[in-house]
């Protein structure tokens, strides 16, 4: 089958290739891919940023989001049948959405939201799971909480805004002038145009900040939190909790803590908290999220769609910052330009 694989780590390490069809284990669902989507995580994995923690065997198929049709189920699989339309963010070390077929553990798969096309559903799993796990599992956002999400027009930010509003939070976001109408339509109560003003000068008393930019932006984010507030970053620096989550050796946890020592000390001095976040595959949460999409509480935001043959071009579109809003989708449908 045709796939896009990481042959070597680095910016030029991905290529099109013919690879064997995946082996289907007892607990696996074999899915014929209808669409996938591009995430910043694809670039990070391709470049080898997590190679000490995620031990992929080169070459491996890239792609963290997938939607498609079940073509076979393993002997121990229950709840899925051939012909079912599903979506998933396969677990780490078993990714591979940029291919014609993928075998996924049944615990990572969920029925596709009925209201979404397969192309729309492919834009959803990673960002929806990340939003849920940050807002619900980790921060336990409740009605009345104040949440700041950076880059509100992005794939992750646009989903966080909607879910935080559904949970009853007051939501602020940073965006550029062209994106203000979009983020307000998603539910943002306060929009800071980062081309005109500094969010840290106008916001204060927030319970939670979700950062996808890192660096100076993360450091400034600590200052808008109320005492005891929490800043979560998806770009780092990583902490010992990340190493523990991946089951890494103890010494790697010490290294992660060293990498994040400066920002954690800054947070402690301000009386707030910092955590790194790395989402996990979870089919049962995708079922709950599907209900929110079908009820209209959430909707996908899609920037553009590329045909499967142009997957590397789609990745470059994201890598080079040409995405205007939401996700970039790769579709198997022959009529996409």
Care to describe what's here?
It is a single chain. Helices cover 31% and strands 26% of the residues. It has helices spanning 40-46, 118-122, 125-138, 155-166, 180-186, 199-202, 215-221, 240-245, 250-259, 261-270, 283-294, 311-319, and strands spanning 2-6, 14-18, 28-38, 60-61, 65-73, 85-88, 101-105, 109-111, 146-149, 170-175, 190-193, 206-211, 225-233, 273-276, 302-307, 327-331. Strands 3, 5, 6, 7, 8, 15 and 16 form a seven-stranded mixed β-sheet that branches. Helix 3 crosses helix 4 (155-166). The longest helix has 14 residues, at 125-138. The radius of gyration is 19 Å and the shape is globular. The model has no long low-confidence stretch (mean pLDDT 95).
């Amino acid at each position: 089958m045709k796939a896009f694989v990481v042959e070597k780590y680095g910016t030029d390490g991905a290529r099109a290739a013919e690879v064997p069809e995946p082996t289907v284990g007892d607990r696996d669902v074999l899915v014929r891919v209808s669409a996938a989507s591009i995430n910043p995580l694809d670039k990070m994995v391709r470049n080898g940023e997590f190679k000490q923690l995620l031990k992929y065997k080169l070459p491996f198929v890239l792609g963290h989001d997938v939607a498609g049709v079940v073509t076979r189920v393993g002997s121990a699989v229950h709840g899925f049948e051939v012909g079912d339309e599903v979506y998933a963010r396969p677990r780490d070390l078993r990714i591979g959405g940029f291919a014609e077929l993928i075998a996924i553990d049944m615990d990572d798969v969920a029925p596709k939201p009925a209201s979404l096309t397969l192309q729309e559903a492919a834009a959803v799993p990673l960002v929806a799971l990340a939003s849920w796990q940050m807002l619900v599992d980790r921060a336990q956002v409740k009605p009345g909480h104040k949440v700041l999400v950076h880059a509100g027009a992005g794939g992750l930010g646009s989903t966080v805004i909607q879910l935080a509003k559904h949970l009853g939070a007051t939501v602020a976001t940073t965006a550029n002038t062209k994106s203000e109408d979009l983020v307000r339509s998603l539910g943002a109560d306060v929009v800071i145009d980062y081309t005109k003003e500094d969010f840290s000068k106008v916001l204060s008393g927030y319970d939670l900040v979700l950062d996808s930019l890192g660096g100076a932006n993360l450091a400034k984010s600590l200052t808008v939190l109320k005492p005891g507030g929490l800043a979560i970053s998806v770009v780092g620096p990583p902490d010992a909790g990340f190493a523990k989550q991946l089951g890494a050796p103890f010494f790697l946890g010490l290294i992660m803590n060293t990498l994040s020592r400066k920002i954690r000390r800054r947070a402690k001095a301000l009386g707030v908290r910092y955590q790194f976040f790395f989402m996990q595959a979870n089919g049962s949460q995708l079922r709950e999220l599907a209900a929110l999409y079908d009820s209209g509480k959430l909707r996908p935001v899609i920037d553009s769609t590329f045909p499967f043959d142009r997957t590397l071009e789609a990745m470059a579109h994201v890598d080079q910052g040409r995405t205007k809003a939401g996700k970039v989708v790769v579709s198997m449908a022959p009529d996409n330009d």
